[in-house]
Amino acid sequence: MYFIGVDLGGTNIASALVNEKGEIINSTVIPTEAQKGPEYVIGNMKREIHKLINNAAGSKIVGIGLGIPGLVDIDKGMSLFAGNLGWQNIPVLEQFQNEFDVPVCMDNDVRTAALGEKHFGAGVGIDNLICITLGTGIGSGIILDGKIYRGHSLSAGEIGHITIVKDGLYCNCGNRGCLEMYASAPGIVRRTQKYILEGHNTVMTSMIDGDLDKITTKTLSQAWEKGDELAQLVIDETAEFLGIGLATFAHLINPEVIIIGGGVSLMGDKLFNPLQKYFDEHSMRILRNKLPIIPAKLKSESGTVGAAALAMINLGIL
Amino acid sequence: MYFIGVDLGGTNIASALVNEKGEIINSTVIPTEAQKGPEYVIGNMKREIHKLINNAAGSKIVGIGLGIPGLVDIDKGMSLFAGNLGWQNIPVLEQFQNEFDVPVCMDNDVRTAALGEKHFGAGVGIDNLICITLGTGIGSGIILDGKIYRGHSLSAGEIGHITIVKDGLYCNCGNRGCLEMYASAPGIVRRTQKYILEGHNTVMTSMIDGDLDKITTKTLSQAWEKGDELAQLVIDETAEFLGIGLATFAHLINPEVIIIGGGVSLMGDKLFNPLQKYFDEHSMRILRNKLPIIPAKLKSESGTVGAAALAMINLGIL
Q1: A247–B156 C-beta distance less than 8 A
Q2: Nearest to A282 among B150, B163, B281 (CB)
Q3: Which residues in chain B are closer than 8 Å to A150, comparing Cβ atoms?
Q4: How many domains in chain A?
Q5: Do B152 and A256 touch (CB under 8 A)?
Q6: Which of B157, B173, B282 sits opposite A175 (nearest CB)?
Q7: How far away is chain A from the Cα of B165, in angstroms, using its nearest Cα?
């Protein structure tokens, strides 16, 4: 039995043919081109699925899962709101159900990524976990008793928008001092740029030819490896912001493990070591040194494999 | 059918005979005297239950529920740790099961209080809610899909120990800057005392005959009613600490309602009005003005009625 998982992102549409073990057999990536509107994007998603079906000649495809950014009404199959796509109240699911002969289901992309990690990644065998995505934004999927937990109005797990700095930076969510403003990729870059503008000496200045816009979290990572003190400071601060935020999350949800994925997590031990330290420092004694924070295993594949996992769950196979 | 609910606290043991509608028919309160040890306390609890049974002559008592402070292992019927009682690994449940002919069950007291509010108080008809207890400490019971959520190691809902002030006051939980250090009754009193010691002019000084140890949250409440500016400042600050903490809780759990009980909640609108304001200010726009923070309805009875509700659930009646 085979499944297709589609991960719709602001930049790319990633699709994959996945087997029952969560292994990718075949995959495609195309640009999203969200500015061309939902019809165009959904048309492209369908075409990618057809491509995978055609290339899988003979293999039995039994279900399709979609991971969609933003607020998703899984019962109505609607995208209620997706800021990075410019979508609002778009009926998504019916368009796929009319096109394909197999069952199609959808959920929020961060939640499907959490499912991917739970069933085929770093969370195998664990029934209570939080899976954080650290990228352009910061989101999370909560798995309780083995199942996705969505909350009363589908907003559970909004770790990116908890107040981490009182009277801090204004966020476009309406709150201020949000974790996302400090520890997402743009937040980290912004803090780095601010330090450089203030006059700190750093190897990064030459690495980016003096052009602050060229700084990425990869620049920081490389500078850290060269022993750069400013890079160490910024990553340490990032770990502290995250450590406080994740300790808060853990005190409320009390998961068995916290899994971290997304682009920023690729910093690896440079980030995870101080993060675990700050997390434990900001935890009650009875929780300290008991909750591991571990990197996601599926990396860039968590989206498509997670969407395929959703299809498996929908069919009662997982 | 009748039930008995026992609420074991650091100060008192409250017991009640409760009918199926959650109404108290008869009740008793005796001092806990925890310093005399667990055997003595458990003996007293049994005696109170026998008293209620004897006084209920003819009424059919079908179940007993116990609300116990601290960490409770509901499967083993053990009190794993209760700081205010000095208990550690005390087998509680078997002692009651050997004594009474009807089923006995137990859970953490904050969780049973949440059950009380869910079934017979401010949360009737609501399946996803958080019930906060603001008293000597700050705890919470989380109800998801109508059931108590306990977390992986029974520590879910530890809102009192999330970091609300970075590098803030040391807490005996091992963390620092915990919400409980600022917004529990002792935290509020401590902040008031500090302001008075700094020299602020306030009607409270005469209300307490200059003895700072006499200040309680009731003093503050009365001073507020007299238009005292320091009392207003302290209550406003309390609301801000709580507003940030509860907004964080809501962003992660996304409940339908937040219920607040415990001694501090008796301040009423003086606290709830600014609390709702700060909560909304620290929320994402899509959550703002949608989540009501309401006072507990059962007040001092939530413990016993909640323990009785636990007994009803245990018997499949609720």
Answers
A1: no
A2: B163
A3: 254
A4: 2
A5: yes
A6: B282
A7: 9
The CATH number of whichever domain residue A51 belongs to comes to 3.30.420.40
Cβ atoms within 10 Å, residue A175: 26
Asked if residue B131 lies in contact with residue B108, where contact means CB atoms within 8 angstroms, the answer is no
- Is there a single domain that holds both residue B170 and residue B292? yes
Distance from CA of B112 to the nearest CA of A (A): 17
Domain holding A265, by residue range, is 129-296
Q: Are A261 and A272 in contact (CB under 8 A)?
A: no
Does B128 reach chain A within 8 Å, measured CB to CB?
yes
Clarify whether residues B97 and B163 are in a common domain: no
Give tens-digit pLDDT for A124-170. Answer: 999 999 999 999 999 999 999 999 999 999 999 999 999 999 999 99
Cross-strand partners of A260? A132, A295
Task: For residue range B161-185, list pLDDT tens digits in order.
Answer: 999 999 999 998 999 999 999 999 9
Verify whether the Cβ–Cβ distance A254 to B161 is below 8 Å: no
Residue B5 β-bridge partners: B16, B65
The H helix count followed by the E strand count for chain B is: 10, 13
Which one, of A189, A183, A190, A260, lies nearest residue A219 by Cα?
A189
Same-domain status, B144 and B281: yes
